[in-house]
Specification:
Number of strands: 13
Strand content: 15-25%
Order of helices and strands: HHEEEHEEHEEHEEEHEEHEHHH
Shape: elongated
Largest sheet: 5 strands, antiparallel
Strand order of the largest sheet: 3-2-1-5-4
Helix content: 25-40%
Length: 366
C-alpha cells in the first residue's frame, strides 16, 4: 500500500486553472520573465481538453496549465523551447495517444510578460471579469513576411475588419472557431476564442456553513460575494446582486424573517440560478407568508431550487456545498449548451443557446 505524502499534497494548488495562469503571468511580469504560451486551436479526434485550453511554459520546461493531458509533453516542451529561443510563433501538431486516434494542434508564441497590462494578462489567462462574453483573437498565419501579425491580441483592429462577421457568429454561438479571411495585405487565419464571464457566486448569509461553499467556488475560479444580514438590510439585498447568465445566488441565512424580507428583491433579479437552503416544508411556508402579504413570487418561486442542491446523499457543510455547486454548474452549463442537461427549468429570461454538442468527438478541424 502506498503511504500518503502530505508534503507532496501541499505542492498542489487549490486554485482554479485560470487563477494559476494569472498568478504565473503576474510573477513573470514582476521578474521580467519570458514565457511560451501554448494554445489549443484544433482537434481531430477525441481529446480531454477542448479548443481554447492553454498552458504557460518557462525556459526550464516548467508548465502551468494543461493542453495535452501530458501524452505529448516531450514534443510540446521541445517546441516551446524553440519558440522561446527564436521568438517566432509556430503551429505544432501533436498526435493523440491511441494510434490513429487523431491529433491536436497547438499554437505557440513567446510572451514578454513585463509588457502586459492587467487586462491583457487576464485575457491570456482566459479570465473574463465582465458581465458578457468576449472574444480573444489569435492570428495563426498571416501574409508572408509579416510576422508582426502573429499571436494573441497583437494585430491592429483596423486590419481585422474582415473578421467582424466571424467574431459576431462566435459571440452568438458561444464556442471558439477558426476563421480565414482576406485582407488588403493578403489572407490571414485566426483562432477566435469565446471567453464567458467568470461565474459570480453571491451567498446570502454569513454562518459557518458558508465557508465550504465559498471554498468550492474559489477552487472553480468563481467570483465571490457575501451579503451578511448583519451588515445589509435584507430589503436592500436584491439590487446588490449582479444580473446575468453567469450569476448564482444561494440563500442560506437559516432565518425565516430575513428570508421573508430578502427573497422578493432577490427573486426579482435576472440571474441564472437561485437556491434556498432549508426543507421543502420551510420553503412552502415562506411562500404562503409572502403571498399572503401581497408579494407576487409564484413564477419566480418555481424557478428557485428548494431544497437547494442535487441529492448526493451526503452530510455536513462540505457535502451540502458540493451538492449546491454541482447543481449550479449544471444549470450554467445548460444555458450555454445545445446538449440535453438533466436539471430543473432554467431561470427567468434564459434558454439553451445553440452550440456544439458537448461530448462530441469532433473539435475544430485543421
Amino acid at each position: 500500500m502506498v503511504s500518503p505524502n502530505p508534503d507532496r499534497v501541499s505542492q498542489f494548488s487549490r486554485s482554479s486553472e485560470g487563477a494559476r495562469l494569472s498568478a504565473r503571468l503576474r510573477r513573470a511580469r514582476e521578474e521580467r520573465e519570458t514565457l511560451a504560451l501554448a494554445l489549443l486551436v484544433g482537434c481531430e479526434g477525441s481529446s480531454s481538453r477542448r479548443e481554447g485550453a492553454r498552458a504557460l511554459i518557462d525556459a526550464e520546461g516548467r508548465t502551468t496549465g494543461l493542453v495535452s493531458s501530458g501524452f505529448a509533453e516531450p514534443l510540446l516542451l521541445e517546441a516551446a523551447h524553440e519558440v522561446l529561443e527564436s521568438g517566432a510563433p509556430r503551429l505544432v501538431d501533436l498526435p493523440l495517444p491511441e494510434p490513429g486516434a487523431g491529433k491536436i494542434q497547438i499554437f505557440l508564441e513567446r510572451v514578454d510578460a513585463a509588457s502586459l497590462t492587467d487586462h491583457a494578462l487576464e485575457r491570456l489567462a482566459r479570465r473574463n471579469f465582465g458581465t458578457t462574453g468576449e472574444i480573444v483573437t489569435t492570428i495563426l498565419s498571416a501574409p508572408a513576411g509579416d510576422a508582426d501579425w502573429l499571436g494573441t491580441d497583437k494585430a491592429h483592429s483596423a486590419r481585422l475588419t474582415g473578421l467582424k462577421p466571424q467574431i459576431s457568429h462566435c459571440l452568438h454561438d458561444e464556442i471558439p472557431r477558426r476563421a480565414r479571411v482576406e485582407t488588403t495585405d493578403g489572407w490571414i487565419e485566426a483562432f477566435l476564442d469565446f471567453v464567458p464571464p467568470l461565474p459570480q457566486l453571491t451567498v446570502v448569509g454569513a454562518g459557518e456553513d458558508t465557508h465550504a461553499l465559498l471554498a468550492l467556488g474559489e477552487v472553480l475560479g468563481w467570483r465571490l460575494a457575501v451579503l451578511d444580514p448583519g451588515s445589509v438590510e435584507p430589503e436592500r439585498m436584491g439590487p446588490l446582486i449582479p444580473e446575468g447568465d453567469h450569476s448564482v445566488v444561494v440563500v442560506m441565512t437559516h432565518d425565516c424573517d430575513v428570508d421573508r424580507r430578502a427573497l422578493p428583491g432577490i427573486l426579482a433579479r435576472r440571474v441564472a440560478y437561485v437556491g434556498l437552503v432549508g426543507s421543502r416544508a420551510r420553503a412552502e411556508r415562506l411562500r404562503r407568508e409572502l403571498e399572503d402579504g401581497g408579494a407576487h413570487v409564484s413564477d419566480a418561486w418555481e424557478r428557485m431550487r428548494h431544497p437547494v442542491g442535487l441529492d448526493l446523499v451526503g452530510e455536513g457543510p462540505e457535502a451540502i456545498a458540493l451538492a449546491i455547486v454541482t447543481e449550479a454548474q449544471a444549470v450554467l452549463g445548460a444555458i450555454h449548451s445545445a446538449a440535453p442537461v438533466d436539471v430543473p427549468p432554467l431561470a427567468a429570461g434564459f434558454s439553451r443557446l445553440p452550440g456544439r454538442e458537448r461530448g462530441s468527438d469532433l473539435g475544430i478541424p485543421f
